[in-house]
Amino acid sequence: MNNSYEAVMARKNDIMRKSVGIDYEKYEHDYIAFDYEKMLDDCGFSLEEIKKIQSESGVGNTPLKECKNITNLCRKVSKPGYGARIFIKDEALNDSGSFKARRASISCYQAKKMGYKGVIAATSGNYGAAVASQAAKYGLKCIIVQECYDSKGIGQPEIIEKARACEAYGAEVVQLSVGPELFYKFLLLLEETGYFNASLYTPYGIKGIESLGAELVEDCLRITNKEPDMVVVTNAGGGNLTGTARGIKQVTDKKINIVGSSVNLYGLHMASDTDFNKKSFTTGHTGFGIPFIMNPDRSDVPRSAARALRYIDRYVTVTQGEVFFITEALSVLEGIERGPAGNTSLAAAFSLAQELPEDKIIVVQETEYTSAGKHHQAQLAFARDNGICIYFGDPKNEIPGKSIVFPKEVSYIKAQDLDLTEIKYKYIMNHIKNLNKISQKDLKFLVDETNTSMDYLKKILDQNKIEVEA
């Protein structure tokens, strides 16, 4: 068999179909539409089934904790009567230490059910450890493909730590340098082993997070007799936000504002060898968040089930310095030491809570475990060794890749809004480029994808002289 890069890429759709058991083409219609809801419905898991599977595999039912001291600190810099109550859903207490265990639990259950002998995932994040942990429970072989090093063989301590965790759970870890080799190697391994593609972006991965959205509403009701007013979600590839929002909608009719939050890494290229080790966050940042929200199908399956633009109400960024600061605040004020990436949404919540009255409730929907390599002090020491300037000042002056600025006072923690209208417009333009007409199904698809209206879409189509078929 020809295993050149070009030949393997030419076979990728066939490899994908065999490795997840989903014929993605049957959901595609007309010029650009595809039936997203049917794809998720066909995977066949109800919320109750998901909860049962997860409860039997060390996943879910994590505690919702009120951060009273952080809330009090927030109120000191809010105007009188403002400063919403802040809660965290402590997802670090899942087996493997993050919410990714929810995604992995359903993927590995499905792999076992379909008779696959093993699972493969391409990830440098917490998902690798989650898949390895769940595979161990189901007696499945496991291979994790990681992008670990730059061309000099130097890697972020956080990623190296995650490799150790995967190996501890019995997985084989294939460590690669930054570049396009990752996807090629991933496809080749799927083809050679016949294992299940435990991608973050299959319907199984997204279904697994729906329980998180449902639980945080149910927990909040039980503890406070009220539902949350706002849920803040760290956003990267969009699956965390998508699954959480879908789960919330299954247990309440109340409009709860869904806010995505990413670390601002503007200016750093994710596939750049020289930029690779200048990022002090390996996930939850704009390098994933922006491209994936505008083009979700750039993932490692033909059609991604992670489609954040359908559900997001507001999208904000925070800086690396703000997240590291709030990570220490969580430890010092609440006695809860957690990894910094999961605290991206907590940093945003600290800022957003100042906009809401004291009787409102904000839920930060995840934490993640921390350990030697994942600890923020290890990441800061690595940043300093790579020439990053670290100081206290105004986080607005932070330049990704050159500086990390801790807020000199807590009032300097300010989440910055991104323009969702512009993002939605760019999404639409990406999809209609090179077309001179679309169908009624395409029109409905774009409305659903961008959570806009027929009138809004028709106006853009008219401006671009694109006909809508009768």
TrEMBL record:
<dbReference type="GO" id="GO:1901605">
    <property type="term" value="P:alpha-amino acid metabolic process"/>
</dbReference>
<dbReference type="Pfam" id="PF00291">
    <property type="entry name" value="PALP"/>
</dbReference>
<keyword id="KW-0663">Pyridoxal phosphate</keyword>
<dbReference type="InterPro" id="IPR001926">
    <property type="entry name" value="TrpB-like_PALP"/>
</dbReference>
<dbReference type="InterPro" id="IPR053471">
    <property type="entry name" value="AKP_thiolase_beta"/>
</dbReference>
<feature type="domain" description="Tryptophan synthase beta chain-like PALP">
    <location>
        <begin position="58"/>
        <end position="364"/>
    </location>
</feature>
<protein>
    <submittedName>
        <fullName>PLP-dependent lyase/thiolase</fullName>
    </submittedName>
</protein>
<keyword id="KW-0456">Lyase</keyword>
<dbReference type="InterPro" id="IPR036052">
    <property type="entry name" value="TrpB-like_PALP_sf"/>
</dbReference>
<dbReference type="GO" id="GO:0016829">
    <property type="term" value="F:lyase activity"/>
</dbReference>
<dbReference type="InterPro" id="IPR050214">
    <property type="entry name" value="Cys_Synth/Cystath_Beta-Synth"/>
</dbReference>
